[in-house]
Automatic annotation (TrEMBL):
Substrate binds at residues 9, 67, 147-150, 178, 198-199. It comes from Linum tenue. The lineage of its organism: Eukaryota, Viridiplantae, Streptophyta, Embryophyta, Tracheophyta. It comes from the Eukaryota. It is an enzyme of class 5 (isomerase). Transmembrane segments: none annotated. This is Ribulose-phosphate 3-epimerase. GO terms for molecular function: D-ribulose-phosphate 3-epimerase activity; metal ion binding. Its EC number is 5.1.3.1.
């Protein structure tokens, strides 16, 4: 059964002290560090690239869960592999024609492949990527429109999570957008085991308590999936 993994979104961290912030999250109990890569074309924002991942990798052995919101994910595989990314999650909307090649190259560079989908994309589009011989290890269901942090959680996206969990009991299913103490129950009960949380963790007086709460909620409902 898929284990609970809490991944603070470093987009909400203090970028001027990224290594320190990363270690702070790990000390608070984080399992992964979620890195939002935006190119300003696929989404209307520009964040970080491979050089920042490479710099952070020098200071941590943590799992760097990279979510690429970019128009040409194939172009990013080699630089992110060299930089030390652990996971490489691309958007199906940007890879409908070449996802098989993309997955192969991600694996060849030693990274774990994942696929993400926007709220308006039917969940059925990712089934072939989970079931193929060259398959992804993770599906990221966006619970907000990608591009900016601090948005409101979209509970209607939980139908996608439920369908995935029913079809793939051991799959890592990640949710990203508006996750925190008030929304974790909806995500966990639907079947999400990988929880990305930015504002609710970094903005909390005690981030460790929020991380622990979310992990416990996931672990507490796993038997009902």
């Amino acid at each position: 059964m898929a284990a609970a993994k809490i991944a603070p979104s470093m987009l909400s961290s203090d970028f001027s002290n990224l290594a320190t912030e990363a270690q702070r999250m790990l000390d608070c109990g984080a399992d992964w560090l979620h890195m939002d890569i935006m190119c300003s074309h696929f989404v209307p924002n520009l964040t970080i690239g491979a050089p920042v991942i490479e710099s952070l990798r020098k200071h941590t052995k943590a799992y760097l869960d990279c979510h690429l919101m970019v128009t040409n994910p194939l172009d990013y595989v080699e630089p992110f592999g060299k930089a030390g990314a652990s996971g490489f999650t691309f958007h199906i909307e940007a890879a409908r024609e070449n996802w098989n090649e993309l997955i192969q190259k991600i694996k060849a560079k030693g990274m774990k492949p994942g696929v993400s989908l926007k709220p308006g994309t039917p969940i059925e589009e990712v089934y072939p990527l989970v079931e193929g011989e060259n398959h992804v290890d993770l599906v990221l269901v966006m619970t907000v429109e990608p591009g900016f942090g601090g948005q409101k959680f979209m509970p209607e996206m939980m139908d996608k999570v439920r369908k995935l969990r029913q079809k793939y009991p051991s799959l890592d299913i990640e949710v990203d957008g508006g996750l925190g103490p008030s929304t974790i129950d909806a995500a966990a009960s639907a079947g999400a085991n990988c929880i990305v949380a930015g504002s609710s963790v970094f903005g909390a007086p005690e981030p460790a308590q929020v991380i622990s709460l979310m992990r416990n909620r996931v672990e507490g409902v796993k038997a009902a999936w």
